[in-house]
């Protein structure tokens, strides 16, 4: 009985060990998902940069921190940038420049209309730019802007780009020199993106933009699961402080209701080195230090695309090289190990 109990105890202990390890793992997992994001942390919500129901004073009150233009209609439950009508453009802008170095913007939006599949457009753009209220051809805002744009493009203009489905979300950083190419859905200047079903959803749809320590992350929550899914995550992004947040939308021959329900800006508590702190962050020029810069994506005279994605056989070759490398390392390691063992034996 004693030995049986001992055995049981041992089993229980190992089970407990297993449980505690699993628990710790689960907590860590949960943390990596939730602790990563400020999610509704009211403490860090910046009201002067946030747009929330019932949008008190927006448009009518001179002291309002938001201003709008074009077809934009402010009701008590949504801000409609465009109605479901042809050739409309509208935008809404935060009039207070943002001097936070690290931030996260949560946008609740609703894109809906009577258009059937592929017969709707054009989408919403979210902005963090030097200028505000400058109407133009890029989803109702000016081209060759300075700053960051996130496009929620619902209409495929480029019939050659069938490798991706629409709606497509993409990011662009501009120092004022690059034009957004509507005909190619901005593909030549995009930094990353993903296809997401964001139109005519029954439930609430959200998008989050996080900018911290040069890293730009875009996440979406559109499946009514109350969880963020990563869409874009790139490093080496430089954006100044002192720019304005905004949202714009446009319709063309095809249309949709483009509604913003809320824009909530959270400050991220991130430490910077004294050198970083001493920099004048308002003087930073928007840029991205990728292997390929957005400009390098522009068609070159030979008609080829620089920085095209790796084709199948190139990926295969790379994988093969990696595999060979691993095999060589393993063999060398084994030989060295064996030699050492033999030497040890000789000493005895
Ligand atoms: Ca488009």
From TrEMBL:
<dbReference type="GO" id="GO:0000139">
    <property type="term" value="C:Golgi membrane"/>
</dbReference>
<keyword id="KW-0479">Metal-binding</keyword>
<dbReference type="Pfam" id="PF03388">
    <property type="entry name" value="Lectin_leg-like"/>
</dbReference>
<keyword id="KW-0732">Signal</keyword>
<dbReference type="GO" id="GO:0005789">
    <property type="term" value="C:endoplasmic reticulum membrane"/>
</dbReference>
<feature type="transmembrane region" description="Helical">
    <location>
        <begin position="315"/>
        <end position="337"/>
    </location>
</feature>
<dbReference type="InterPro" id="IPR051136">
    <property type="entry name" value="Intracellular_Lectin-GPT"/>
</dbReference>
<protein>
    <recommendedName>
        <fullName>L-type lectin-like domain-containing protein</fullName>
    </recommendedName>
</protein>
<keyword id="KW-1015">Disulfide bond</keyword>
<dbReference type="InterPro" id="IPR035664">
    <property type="entry name" value="VIP36_lectin"/>
</dbReference>
<keyword id="KW-0325">Glycoprotein</keyword>
<keyword id="KW-1133">Transmembrane helix</keyword>
<dbReference type="GO" id="GO:0005793">
    <property type="term" value="C:endoplasmic reticulum-Golgi intermediate compartment"/>
</dbReference>
<dbReference type="GO" id="GO:0006888">
    <property type="term" value="P:endoplasmic reticulum to Golgi vesicle-mediated transport"/>
</dbReference>
<dbReference type="InterPro" id="IPR005052">
    <property type="entry name" value="Lectin_leg"/>
</dbReference>
<dbReference type="InterPro" id="IPR013320">
    <property type="entry name" value="ConA-like_dom_sf"/>
</dbReference>
<dbReference type="GO" id="GO:0046872">
    <property type="term" value="F:metal ion binding"/>
</dbReference>
<keyword id="KW-0333">Golgi apparatus</keyword>
<feature type="domain" description="L-type lectin-like">
    <location>
        <begin position="43"/>
        <end position="268"/>
    </location>
</feature>
<dbReference type="GO" id="GO:0005537">
    <property type="term" value="F:D-mannose binding"/>
</dbReference>
<feature type="signal peptide">
    <location>
        <begin position="1"/>
        <end position="35"/>
    </location>
</feature>
<dbReference type="GO" id="GO:0030134">
    <property type="term" value="C:COPII-coated ER to Golgi transport vesicle"/>
</dbReference>
<keyword id="KW-0472">Membrane</keyword>
<keyword id="KW-0430">Lectin</keyword>
<keyword id="KW-0812">Transmembrane</keyword>
């Amino acid at each position: 009985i004693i030995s049986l109990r001992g055995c049981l105890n041992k089993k229980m202990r190992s089970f407990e060990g297993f449980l505690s390890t699993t628990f710790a793992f689960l907590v860590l997992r949960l943390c990596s998902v939730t602790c990563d994001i400020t999610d509704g942390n009211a403490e860090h919500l910046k009201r002067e940069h946030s747009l929330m129901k019932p949008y008190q004073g927006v448009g009518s009150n001179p002291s309002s921190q938001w201003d709008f233009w074009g077809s934009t209609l402010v009701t008590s439950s949504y801000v409609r940038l465009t109605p479901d009508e042809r050739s409309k453009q509208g935008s809404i802008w935060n009039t207070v420049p943002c001097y936070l170095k690290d931030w996260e913007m949560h946008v609740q939006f609703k894109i809906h209309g009577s258009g059937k599949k592929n017969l709707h457009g054009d989408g919403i753009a979210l902005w963090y730019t030097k200028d505000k209220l400058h109407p133009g051809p890029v989803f109702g805002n000016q081209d060759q802007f300075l700053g960051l744009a996130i496009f929620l493009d619902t209409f495929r203009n480029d019939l050659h780009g069938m490798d991706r489905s629409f709606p497509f979300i993409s990011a662009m950083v501009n120092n004022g020199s690059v034009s957004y190419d509507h005909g190619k859905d901005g593909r030549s200047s995009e930094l990353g993106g993903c296809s997401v079903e964001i139109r005519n959803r029954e439930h609430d749809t959200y998008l989050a933009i996080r900018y911290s320590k040069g890293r730009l992350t875009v996440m979406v929550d559109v499946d009514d699961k109350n969880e963020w899914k990563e869409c874009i995550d790139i490093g080496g992004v430089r954006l100044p402080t002192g720019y304005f947040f905004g949202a714009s939308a446009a319709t063309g021959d095809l249309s949709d209701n483009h509604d913003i329900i809320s824009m909530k800006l959270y400050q991220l508590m991130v430490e910077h080195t004294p050198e970083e702190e001493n920099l004048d962050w308002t003087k930073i020029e928007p840029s991205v230090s990728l292997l390929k810069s957005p400009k390098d994506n522009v068609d070159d005279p030979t008609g080829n695309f620089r920085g095209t994605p790796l084709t199948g056989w190139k990926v295969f070759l790379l994988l093969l090289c990696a595999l060979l490398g691993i095999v060589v390392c393993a063999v060398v390691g084994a030989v060295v190990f064996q030699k050492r063992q033999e030497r040890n034996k000789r000493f005895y």
